[in-house]
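Following the same procedure, the fold was encoded as tokens, giving this record:
***
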Amino acid sequence: MTKKLLLIICAVSLLVVPAVVSAADDFQGFGVYLDRGSRANHYSPSGWMGDYGDLKITQGHKDNPYSGKTCIKITYTAEGKQGANWAGMYWQWPPNNWGERNGGFDLTGATKLTFWARGETGDEHIVEFKVGGLTGTYSDTDSNSIGPVELTSEWTQYEIDLTDLDLSYISGGFAWVTNSMANQEGCVFYLDDIRYE
């Protein structure tokens, strides 16, 4: 076999055998909420749960955001308007999707979800912050959570570990839950820079 023919065979073999790159190496981050109107935002805070009548959200709150021009302000009155005595909110895709519609994101390669939060007064109690967990025809492939969390009045970063989870289909990108037992007079808290890393 001539040297020229050997070089041609080697070159062709390199063309037909693609390099294998893991999704973790490709993952560049994925925003849930970075700033109001940001093109890097994904998911919609459409999944109101429990006493949904006790909730109010402002996605463009301008007073003391962690970064950028805006943050999210959440008000929970703990009035029990639906009689559940708890409430929460899911960031979903597509909006209002409880696992019955196709459209989740493949977040393979993410190792954590990080976010910044603070309370209005510093004694707000959140029972759980969560990633994934929606079930149905198009169920999320995995989930994890942290909590309970007692917020302070200063911006603090929190992290949900996603190591070794199957993130190939996530419709429930972020969620929180609290209740009237933990916040008898209700609570006001703020969120910012919610992102998968």
Residues 1-24 have pLDDT under 50 and may be disordered. Residues 53 and 151 are 23 Å apart (CA to CA). Residues 3-16 form the longest helix (14 residues). The chain has one domain: 29-196.
